Amino acid sequence: MADYTRRRDARWPIPIGLTFFVGEQGLRLNYSAIILVFRTVSRGIGLRHSGDAYRGPRIHDLRHSYADATLLRWYRAGEGVEQRLPVLSTYLGHAHPGCTYCYLSACPELMGHAARKLEARWEALS
């Protein structure tokens, strides 16, 4: 990200808009073009068959994977996930952490961390 930021800022020292990722003209990326490129790349690496426009991974799935991976990284590092969740929500563009919960998957490791937290709270209340 830092490398991209340096190269973007070298090419467009005065931002044209507020978006982080920009296209060749320095403007916001076109969503339809992003989807087309994502489908082409996912076909090229074997995640989608030729002709499958609607089957296979979606670009939006990356948000879910990122949210899960971030929480797992925080749990593994022993960081206070409850305190850091607003950071993740902000990064995903959500106004409130409650909007972020739908991005979290019930993967076994995350469920294990959640269960241990819940058990610890119940023990503290007993």
From TrEMBL:
Q: From what organism does this protein derive?
A: Novosphingobium rhizovicinum
Family annotation (SUPFAM superfamilies)? DNA breaking-rejoining enzymes
Q: What is the designated name of this protein?
A: Phage integrase family protein
**InterPro entries under this entry?**
DNA_brk_join_enz, Integrase-like_cat_sf
Q: Which UniProt keywords apply?
A: DNA recombination
* Superkingdom as given in the UniProt entry: Bacteria
